[in-house]
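Much of the work behind modern protein science is quiet bookkeeping, done one molecule at a time. The fold becomes a row of whole numbers, each drawn from a learned catalogue of backbone shapes. The protein below has been through that process, and both of its lines are reproduced in full.
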Amino acid sequence: MDLYVERQCIDNMKGGDSKQFLLLFEANFKDVHKYVARRVADRQEVEKIVRLTFLDALGQIRSTPTDVGYVIWLYSLAKPRVWDYIAKSSFPGQLGLITVSGKGKEGDDNIVEKVDKMMKKLSLEEREILRLKFFEEVADGDLITILGLEEGKLGPKIYRVLKRAHFLLFGEDKEKKKVYFGKLSGLFENVRKLEVIELPEVLKLSLKADFTNRIERKNFAINGEVVKEKEPFVAVKEDAEAPQGSNDPAKVFVEAVKEMREEEEEERVKQQEKLERQEKAYDFIDKWKGVLVLIPIVLFIWIIVLVVMSLWGFFDKGVKRGYVNTCEVEVEYDGEMSDSVRRSIDRGITNRICDYFEVQEMSIAYGGTGDVFVEVDVTDWLLEYRFARKNGEWRIKKYARTPDSN
């Protein structure tokens, strides 16, 4: 619809000609439906949100803004409902992109798959900014109305989103131009051409009939069952004589709407704070990504060094390995012996000697012939043994006892 014609329709509608709303509905139904369908996969939820969005607009005829395009205002009415659905859903709708034709997955270097993976790595607000700019083609100034942002924060936020999307899709900008819009715009334009969203004419006709009926009855309120779901932006009947008193339905209805709006505002603030925390985290990662990438590399190299040093026996130098004996004194071992031999000696010789004698010192030498020479220092005596292995058991081959020189 031409901007001048749209402005006339809004002025006439606010002046009392409510039927002008039907012209605005006809002109903007397709855009609003696409806006919702790009973000919500459930068809029934899409139809419900589209219906409630236009009911919001119908209920706020008198407060319809004239400083922004009508479709932008409709987007701003639909956005809280879409985000609320995504927040409450265990399996939210379109985390990635919209449904596309089959050729998009086979041709064009799988650009749809690449962009879809990139979108899933972004926050809800970041995805919304990219969709609004490259699919709805909304101007930067209108993003303030839709997202409820402060004007001073918009520019840096858009720049960070474009930079992050560019990095996820194309990697680091080697030329350091820091101009991300052009390349992203071309890519998203190719994806948008593959978009497949069916326009439900039946829904359009049904909504038009419902709105016509409401306008004729001058009843712009949302149905009772919807009010129970805490849907905002409703109005009372125009030109109707409302009863007075504390049980006045109109007053009760307005109070309920007021409470719902306050709850929605609290939820919006919480969502905004959450998004700001995510942005700070992304900024921190962006700022220190070099260090964050370096840390796992350093840890990996250190682990490799430890493994290599272990394999080379660096940690085994001067360390006695083998079966832990039960003697309370330190036993000195001499000679090259395998772990199995060492365990066998400890089990069959060392531990048995310690069981029989009050050992003060003990030394064990393993000879090249397989014999084991043992010196045991006990009170007043020095015991000397020579053991040989027979049938898997260590047998005493020679024994001597001399006065302890100590």
Remarks:
- Confidence is low (pLDDT under 50) at residues 102-106, 224-250, 316-322.
- Residues 285-315 form one domain.
- The CA atoms of residues 383 and 401 lie 5 Å apart.
